[in-house]
């Protein structure tokens, strides 16, 4: 409008060409707007990384606090100066065969110098005092085989260092347990090899379906009945950690010819008889709903993934050993545990396939300790276990299961927050 007025008034001053200038200004404004939009909304490219800042006084990163961190994806880092004061070999609850320092295992001290570092966040050592304070008036139970006892002992020894009276107590059929009286916190271990009830079976002189198929002896496994050692655990505990697996692929325990697992359901033998892997599926199909129905709302249920064995050169009683002095590389672990190689320790990934399938869609949280543990071929008692053969199944204490408990408690914090 002003240009037109100037033109009509016949000003003699030189006129400025405003249209190109306005066009340039508009063009630059659009570029700036697009740039700002891209900065705020463009998706992360594969090469980009996210920096996580510590979000609370515990030092846990945002990824750890909101549960977005994949703790199973990481690496072991050696620190010769790393020493944890959570407990030492003098903890009386440590089973003799797992006390590698007392048994003079050559790398017993170095085992605890390795720290697990997830790629996306940190996994700090849990603080026993903070844990006891946060989980006052709580009953925690470990249900499973001796590997869950390994984890239970690690937790007990860590908590025992906190001042306060501790009383032995075995509630709800537990094999062993302790109450930290100042905090009214109880931890227990319920021993069960296969979760389901089982006992020796012999052929009946009067015959039967199994007898007609030529079976003379074995083990009767009732897939729908929990073992008595933990049948009351879901009614008592606020937090439960389950495991199973090692006994399902143990021919020294359940020889497929001399002492096979014979599965029963509703009191009757399953005909035709099924192999152990199918039996495991059936047990999980019954035990998981059993727990879910009996634990109250707000209770927390974990299923721990399989703990790997590291036998090389043979299995138990077959000359197998585990004499490595440091963790495996990822490629070494893959060679040892790959299903395609079908080696001695293949059970770890086979069991996990069954577990993950059975747990899908349930209210259980998965405690995935397998990837970090597959690398720790150095952390077993080996010949220091005091047996005629190397113990390449259980873990030295102090040792790897301390990190399992760091992971367990980090998950508890994430769930509670």
Automatic annotation (TrEMBL):
It is a single-pass membrane protein. One of its GO terms (cellular component) is membrane. Residues 123-410 form the Trichome birefringence-like C-terminal domain. Residues 57-68 have a biased composition (Basic and acidic residues). InterPro entries: TBL, TBL_C, TBL_N. The keyword Zinc does not apply. Keywords: Membrane, Signal-anchor, Transmembrane, Transmembrane helix. The keyword Ligase does not apply. GO terms for molecular function: O-acetyltransferase activity. Signal peptide: none annotated. It comes from the Eukaryota. The chain crosses the membrane at residues 16-37. It is found in: Membrane. Residues 68-122 form the Trichome birefringence-like N-terminal domain. Residues 48-69 are annotated as: Disordered. Belongs to the PC-esterase family. TBL subfamily. This is Protein trichome birefringence-like 13. It comes from Cucurbita moschata.
